[in-house]
């Protein structure tokens, strides 16, 4: 059983002992810390008169209703009004915050984690994730339990609004690069795996609004995930078979909170999560000149596609908040993460599987051909992911510094660990914040080459560390 406190929120397994798991006591404490932080933003004088408002939404996991009630009524106890979206998606809550002119938002989801997990993901008034400094303040407030609750006449009010998935879909349909009639004319047939969460509500609704024939698989939002909810190849045998059996154009897979998007090609093979962003960027850059951003551990294929369209690609440190900051700094017109997260600023600065789905449908409708043919047209890269466990007490930072020095004549990036860009491949070394582990990500033009590079770097780290 686990409880993980970080700058982006709190997540853990349901049940067990307070401070070791995500219990009702931990939930209330961190909701109170967030609400208190929110009220402190204007200073004590201004906050005494101001009425604060927070948007809350959740995925369909079994513990969601319990966690939601705890969070909602903790905020009410702080005198904060709540807009309760009920079953929702992460990007839907992100869109709702500015539309409601709210002061913040909380999404109750553990993303791709299994059903025993849940989490509080925290947003600012723009509907974007908090930065490190803001997250640290909330953790400090939670640690000190420095809360003052409201008297009876000053309690917050709860307003239920279950229309926001429809509002979100309308927002997607109104994007300048999305043309409902073009998609409808293509007569697509698509299989959707909603992993029995809110993607099973949102994605079919969007597809039907775009005139797409939908075959539903695991779209009943019960929270009983039929397979591991992380959208990886080893978990997606059922939809891969169904796409072929239904002679569908492709399949769509989302995680429980619908911010990650993966496609199954018409032949039942994975399109590749890394290539979700590549394909969407290919479409957007073909219509609008501009720059792109992904994180350091994402595929080089985005750089290739960006440069093909005359744009500039830059890499950010791992983490959505870092990608968003880099996108704003470089005025990127599309970006995201290699885990299937599409960030399209014309909509909002958050990973959004609904936006990604619409952009991908536009690409396929205009280009024609099959999804397999599209995938085959992109640069072929293969990734390897390994980790090296080191003896406690070893200087992990010193080891990374030594690797940086060893490859000083290569293209080195040190904003997040050490990334070494070789002409034909790359390796990214990141340390764990909680244990003596170095994670080793590699990419090359064949799986064998990516794996060999990873093993070579592991050997060199061991040599440097003297283990």
Outline:
It comes from Cerina litoralis. One of its GO terms (molecular function) is magnesium ion binding. It contains 16 helices and 20 strands.
Specify the CATH class of the largest domain: Alpha Beta
User: Count the strands?
Assistant: 20
**Percent of residues in beta strands?**
15-25%
CATH topology of the largest domain: Alpha-D-Glucose-1,6-Bisphosphate, Chain A, domain 3
* Helix proportion: 25-40%
Q: Give the termini separation.
A: 31 Å
What is the domain total for the residues? 3
What is the CA-atom radius of gyration, in angstroms?
Answer: 22 Å
- What count of helical segments does DSSP give? 16
Shape: globular
Give the low-pLDDT segments. Answer: none
Give the full name of the CATH homologous superfamily of the largest domain: Alpha-D-Glucose-1,6-Bisphosphate, subunit A, domain 3
Average per-residue pLDDT, rounded, comes to: 95
Q: How are the strands of the biggest sheet laid out side by side?
A: 1-2-6-5-3-4-7
Structural class: alpha/beta
What is the makeup of the main sheet? 7 strands, mixed
Query: What would CATH call the architecture of the largest domain?
Result: 3-Layer(aba) Sandwich
Could you please describe the fold and organization of this structure?
With 467 residues, this protein is α/β, with parallel strands linked by helices. The chain has three domains: 3-162, Alpha-D-Glucose-1,6-Bisphosphate, Chain A, domain 3, CATH 3.40.120.10; 167-377, Alpha-D-Glucose-1,6-Bisphosphate, subunit A, domain 3 (Alpha-D-Glucose-1,6-Bisphosphate, Chain A, domain 3), CATH 3.40.120.10; 382-465, Alpha-D-phosphohexomutase, C-terminal domain (TATA-Binding Protein), CATH 3.30.310. 39% of the residues lie in helices and 21% in strands. The protein has helices at 24-40, 43-49, 64-77, 90-99, 132-144, 164-173, 180-186, 199-209, 237-245, 273-287, 301-308, 320-330, 353-367, 371-377, 396-406, 447-465, and strands at residues 3-6, 9-13, 53-58, 81-87, 104-108, 117-123, 158-160, 189-193, 213-217, 250-254, 261-264, 292-295, 313-316, 334-337, 341-343, 382-389, 411-413, 418-421, 426-431, 437-444. The strands form four sheets. It has a seven-stranded mixed sheet with strand order 1-2-6-5-3-4-7, sandwiched between helices. Strands 16-20-19-18-17 form a five-stranded antiparallel sheet, with helices on one face. A hairpin with a 4-residue loop joins strand 18 (418-421) and strand 19 (426-431). The model has no long low-confidence stretch (mean pLDDT 95).
